[in-house]
Amino acid sequence: VMDGTASSAQLALLGVTVTNVTPDNLKAVQNAIGTADPTSLTALQTAVDNAISTFNNASTLIANYANFVNDYEITDSIYPTPQASDYTALAITGMGDSGQPTVAMINSALGTPALLGTNADTRTDVQAIVDAYQVILDNANTASSTDASASDYLAIGVTGVDAGAETNLLGSVIENKATADVDSVADLQALANAVQAVMDGTASSAQLALLGVTVTNVTPDNLKAV
Q: What is the tens place of the pLDDT at every residue in 122-146?
């Protein structure tokens, strides 16, 4: 308990009612107990109950945001925007520090049409979104890192990226981008669309430039040849 690693069985052994402790919320419960540092069974039970309630509220808020706010420009006040505290309540790790996905980045993923409430209604689901975005950020921050896979892009709501040539080209492009160039799923979707256009032979001059191609000499007259 004091180390914040107690299992549900161990909590029950101590006399805690663990009916609502699940594999999904256990980490949040453990974190809350570690923070509360309870010195009585009553305090321990209170910490567990409060953690579960806070977890459930945060999980519902995040799932609703993903399910109903399916737009890059978020304006619907009916479904509040998830805050750092919500991700903390869900016991999500790997967010907010230098080089890690920010709350805004993950919210941009939740706000895409590709991600619905069923893609973000468990701690495991949300952690997978964070982890996938981390792979992409690592690619932008460290050229030697592994390129993101097609499943990584899809996990954060970027669509239309196929494994193979497309992931290779997109990974090469992102290696030469700064974090600010990939700090929203809208930015990444624009890059993915440009890569798809290249593969289709329909890329505009603007899309080529977005990918990092020097297009000084590309003109409307020679674009088709390009």
A: 999 999 999 999 999 999 988 667 8
